[in-house]
Each structure stands twice: as C-alpha cells, then as structure tokens.
Specification:
Layout: H1 3-8, H2 14-29, E1 36-37, E2 44-45, E3 51-53, H3 55-59, H4 62-80, H5 87-100, H6 102-110, E4 116-118, H7 120-126
Antiparallel strand pairs: 1-2, 3-4
Helix pairs in contact: 4-5, 4-6
C-alpha cells in the first residue's frame, strides 16, 4: 500500500468517483433542484442521480465518438449531396465520411469545458470501459 492509500484509504473506483461528483453537483443545486438533461441523450436525469464525467473521459469513449462522428458524417454527406443524390450513393459514402470527421468529432467533444452529466443508460452504453465500476 502506498503512502497516500495508508493516509487516506484506498482510492474509490472511477465510476464511484463520477457518481460522487454528480451527488455533490446536485447538492450545489439545492434541495428543490429540478431534473436535468443527460448531456449524451438529452433524457431527464433526476436530482441526485447520474454521473459527472470529465471531458477527457467522454472523449476516450470510442462508442460515443463514433456516435458523434456518424452525426457529423450525416450532416456532411447531406450538405454535399443535392436533392438528386441517390440514397445508395449517400449510404455508400457514410462510412468514409464518418472516418474522415472523427478528429472533428473528438475536437467538438473536447471543446466542452464543463463536466458532462450522464444518465445510467448512457453510462452503460458508452462509458463502461472508460469509467470502470472497479
């Protein structure tokens, strides 16, 4: 056991730390806080629930970066193709477009300077590996 572990006890697992940050954030909102929105899916997060993740943790999630990349790719392909673009051509372009905008997606995520409030569902879907339970 290291010096800090002996002094302060063992470190909490990352998921528990994120849950605790969310609880403290909710406490700062006051006793009558209304539900907030998940920063990933926009579903409602009840007071004293959810997880607060750092921007770096969000950017490390391959599955969430893929979701943002696909959204950007759809925007890119839709704006590039005119009304006559065949859906087969548009669908064929999507994987290449998603790969091409991946760095832009990561930059967009990293541009957020505030913590991300994440619901239980999004935590399970996108952040299991990034913010492990133990």
């Amino acid at each position: 056991m290291g010096f800090l572990s002996r002094l302060f006890g063992p470190a909490k697992p990352p998921r528990e730390q994120a849950k605790e940050r969310a609880r403290n954030w909710w406490l700062g909102k006051g006793a009558n806080a209304s539900p907030a929105k998940c920063d990933i899916c926009a579903n409602s997060v009840a007071p004293r629930e959810g997880y607060l993740l750092r921007t770096g943790q969000v950017a490390e999630s391959g599955s969430y970066v893929t979701v943002v990349s696909e959204q950007l790719a759809k925007e890119t392909v839709s704006s590039a193709g005119g009304p006559g673009m065949d859906w087969i051509v548009r669908d064929a372009l999507m994987p290449a477009a998603a790969f091409a905008v991946r760095d832009t997606a990561i930059a967009r995520i990293k541009s957020v300077s505030t913590p991300w409030l994440v619901c239980d569902s999004c935590m399970s879907r996108h952040f299991e590996k990034v913010v492990p339970a133990s």
